[in-house]
Amino acid sequence: MKAIVCTKYGSPDVLQLKEVEKPVPKDNEALVKVHAASLNAADLEYLRGVFIVRLLYRGLLKPKNTILGSDIAGQVEAVGRNVTQFQPGDEIWGDLSYPYSFGTFAEYVCVPENALRLKPASMTFEEAATIPTAGVVALQNLRGKRPIQPGQKVLINGAGGGAGTFAVQLAKYFGAEVTGVDSTRANSA
């Protein structure tokens, strides 16, 4: 199978498209054919090797897991013997960031059962792949310790980014009066 591989920390230029062995699911995992994977800040942090504490988990000098990608949408192809919530053919979305080992920038990936959710039939794979990190971060920040209230004025800083676009939509859904701001300069990865 093909995968985007990162053998050293750096810019996106260090990524390579390579043939790698197709994974085999463990007892508590599902083998997923990847239909869509989204890129988010966690993937870029992993690629660049930032946050020294995380390097202890990910590899100090070079990445332990060479296939990046944490957000996924795809179809279950096979399941381990202890998997009960999913079966081959199920369309799913999920998050393989910490404590899992990333790996969604490949044609197939093995995913622990508890990291997956069924994809709504009304949602495309591309739409579903954006939810695990950006959508959840936005929801947690809007409905966390001090949930927004209908009619409340909310400023979304970074409204044009992954989590920001979700935050604007969710805040409006919850009845807030939303003002969104973002940079006008081109930001590079």
CATH superfamily of the largest domain: Medium-chain alcohol dehydrogenases, catalytic domain
Q: Whole-Å distance between the termini?
A: 26 Å
The portion of residues forming beta strands comes to 25-35%
Q: Indicate the overall shape.
A: globular
Helix residue percentage = 10-25%
What radius of gyration results from the CA coordinates?
18 Å
| Low-confidence runs of at least 5 consecutive residues | none
The number of E-state strands comes to: 9
- Spatial order of strands in the largest sheet: 6-3-4-5-7
CATH fold group of the largest domain: Quinone Oxidoreductase, Chain A, domain 1
Number of helices: 5
CATH class of the largest domain: Alpha Beta
Average pLDDT? 88
Architecture per CATH nomenclature, i.e. the level-2 architecture of the largest domain: Alpha-Beta Complex
H/E topology pattern: EEEHHEEEEHHEHE
Count of discrete domains: 2
Sketch the major β-sheet: 5 strands, antiparallel
- Overall SS class: alpha+beta
